[in-house]
Amino acid sequence: MASGIDELVNMLYDMVSDAWGLPFGAEKCLIEREKVLDLIEEIRVNLPKDLEQARAIVESRNEILSQAKKEAEAIKSAAEERARHMVAEDEIVLTSRQKANEIMAMAEAKVKELRRAANDYAEDTLRRLEVVIEQALSETRESRKQFKSAVAKTSNPES
Questions:
Q1: Is residue 1 assigned to a domain?
Q2: Which of 67, 71, 81, 144 is 20 to 30 A away from residue 99, measured at CA?
């Protein structure tokens, strides 16, 4: 039918503005329900999928963080087990502790990096979603203003 949301909103606006007014119903008019519902459904289908993507990103972020924590725990457990087996000599124990600390530091750095990357990605996607929603809200408000203006003109033909 129509390609973009702007075109669909314009079609909906035209449909309402061209509708017959009801006698003694200043702001009321007759429109074809099926046509309006079809246009609204087409608008729904064409709306960006950013909201679904944002939810998926948050879920993905949580999974990444959970997996990173599991990896860190596994690395920590492996390092601790390895250190227990090397207790025999002081130098080996010292080396083991250093390695364990390095592994833990690397694991913590990886968790922080993954958390930062996931947060940045989620923030960016939510920011883009906010822009899209603000644009849609702005277009809707403008359409309502135009609609009210058109209705006022048709209700008051002397002006």
A1: no
A2: 67
